[in-house]
Structure formats: C-alpha cells, structure tokens
Amino acid sequence: MGSESHRFHILFFPFMASGHMILMIDMAKLFAIRGCKSTLIATLHEEPTLKSIAKTKDSGLDIGVVTVTLHPKDLELPIEKLAPDGLISDIFFPWTTEIAAKCGIPRLVFHRTSASSIAGTECLDYVREETEFTKFYNEVKESEKRSFGVVMNSFYELEPAYVDHYRTFLGRRSWTKHTGNRASIDQHECIKWLDSKQPNSVIYICFGSMANFNARQLHEIAVALEASGQRFIWVVKKDTNVEEGKEESLPDGYESRIRNKGLIIRGWAPQVLILDHEAIGGFVKHCGWNSTLEAVTAGMPMVTWPVTAEQFHNKLFVIQVLKVGVDIGVKQWGRLFGDSVKSERVEEAVKRVPMGEEAEEMRRRAKALVEMARGAVEEGGSSWSDLESLLQELGQHRLAHSKKI
Ligand code: UDP
What we know:
Largest sheet: 7 strands, parallel
Helix content: 40-55%
Bound molecules: uridine-5'-diphosphate
Low-confidence stretches: 181-186
C-alpha cells in the first residue's frame, strides 16, 4: 500500500495485557496483509509475551517488534528512527498523542470496546466526584480529541446507529476494524470432547481473562450446572482465595459425578475454537467486548453476566438491541469478582439458551449477524473499505506533511 516508491509503515503500541495484545497483533496482521509494513512496540518486560502470542498467530507475514520502556521520551526514539506513517496506540496511552505530534506523525487511538459503549460513555455523566481514575479518564478523552482519529474494534453493520453517532454527532474521525474469528491454537482435548456431542447441546461458560469469582459464587455455578442437566464446558480461573491444593468451591465429588456431562478447564481455553464448534449451543459470559464479538461471529445465543465497567453497556446492547441473550440479572459492578447470583437463577438461565422456541429465535437472529460479520471483512465490505479509507487519509497526511518540510 502507498505509492510505488513508498510502502506504508505503521507502528502498533498495545497495552500490556494479553487481551489488548491479541487484538493489536491481529490489527498489525491486517495492515500487513494489505501490503503495509507493521511494527509492534513492546516494553522489554512484555516483549516475550508479545512475541509468543504473535508466534501462535504466525502467518508468514513480516511483522517487526521494537522495545521501549514506558518513558515517553523512549518512544520518540523508534518513532524518529523508523519514521512511520502512523502510530496506532492503546486508549490507555493518552501521552502518545503528544509524542506522535512532536514527531509529525498521526496517532490513532485504538478502542478495544464497542461503539455503543464508547458513544454511551460519552453521553452519560455518571462520574460525580474526582478520583485518580476520573482524572486519567479525562486525560484519555482529551488526547482522543486531539488525535488523528479512532480505530474501533467492531464492524459497522453490527452497531450502525452508534458508529454514526460517534462520527457525525460527536464529530470524531473513526474507522471500524474487525478481523473475523480465526483459530489460533491447534486441536485441543476439549475440541475432541465436543466432536462426540450433538449440535447445540453444550453450554460454554467463560468470564474472560480477568474476572475471578470467589469460592461461594463458583459453588453456586457448579450446583446450577449439575442441576440443569445440561452438558457444559466451564472455564474456571484459579480462585486466589482458595488455599493451594484445595477445591473448596466445588461440591464434594463434583468432578467425578459430572465426568460425562461436563468439562472443566482450569486456566486458558481455546475460546474461539470452542465457540465455532457446532456442539456449542450457548455461551454464559461476562460481556467483555471481545467475547461478545466472538459470540456474534459464531452465531451464539448468550447468557449475559456482566462483572464490571463497560460490560454493563455491552449487556444492554446484547439484550435490548441485538436481542440474542438471556440476562442473568446482576445490577452492580462487582470489581473483578462479580455480583453474587444464586444457583437457581443460573440454572434457569442456562436451560433457556440451547433448545426451545426462544433459543431458536435468538439463534436465528445471531446467524443473521454472522452473515453481516463475514460481509464486513470481504473485499468491498465495510471493514475492508474503512481500512482502505484510513490508508488513503494517512497517505494524504504524509503528502501534506512532506510538502511542509
Ligand atoms: N480468552 C480465551 N480463553 C480464555 C479466556 C479468554 O481465549 O480462557 C480470550 C477470549 O476469546 C477473548 C479475550 O480472551 O478474545 C477476552 O477478552 P474480553 O474482551 O471478552 O474480556 P476481558 O478478558 O478483557 O475481560
């Protein structure tokens, strides 16, 4: 991409958490596929993690990695040395707008959440007292206004009203980027397990990479899953309140009783592969935006169980706008541990998603979204065209800037 004599070079600076890095690597790949040179920026400490995630996604594309400290001055060096055409950096790095401007390159803010949640947050004034968090939040918002634009992790057809609102009403330049579901991990024990099950017969339960329920809540979920009689895959993140070696959260003899019905994964599940499997009939989730997008692109009815932050916006979007979910009913932010939900409520919700009239209706709507998601990333689709127009605008910026020099 770019003129014949110039190949576009974009720097990508992810926040150092695996969910953020995965998305940034996907985006770097997307630009590389379109002929750009992509370089990821990592801190020395996080470089091995970034490289190992990038390796699992290896596609033979030439994606470079440079390391920096988190000192703003340190970022200026690779920018000056590499003279890229643009910097796409995480929303949590507001200071990068100034650094990029100093070096004469445009900074784009990468939002890993939905347009509905971004637009919703802009329009609500729910922050009543100033805290360190609200100060940082304001800094983020100000830097966004001064940046070249915003790249959203979504596709236009999924939330057109919110993308339009952001672009026209709030007047922000933005592009949607959506890479589609691509398996990044090889065959896994749970996939073999799923292969032996009927279509839509298994519930998948996973609360993302950070939510970590306490022993009492895990116990309620365990009881509910057993009582529901459903087949399930349940991803249990390690409960830090439980003493090493003890499994207080599960009822006595639980795992041997559910052996034929359920699979418990402790740690990291190959989520995208699981959701794409035809045996999965519903997804109990915390409404992280990535999991929501992955559920949408797999055509999956959901049970929404938000835990914190914008997950509550995403829940409303799934339940009220897309109408592809059953709400578990939590009302309050539970920080990373969740509001408590009784087993009866969990049992009732998980029984509603795999089979029955309501489930079929949700599945029909969810499948229509799958078609839209596929169309968005095809040549000429909305995400494809958005990337095209972003590259054109970066080209114009480069031209205007080189004339000034
Ligand atoms: N994920 C996964 N296996 C797990 C837990 C999470 O592959 O066991 C992936 C999931 O597919 C998604 C991301 O991690 O891409 C979680 O992002 P999300 O925005 O849903 O939630 P967060 O972890 O940021 O709360």
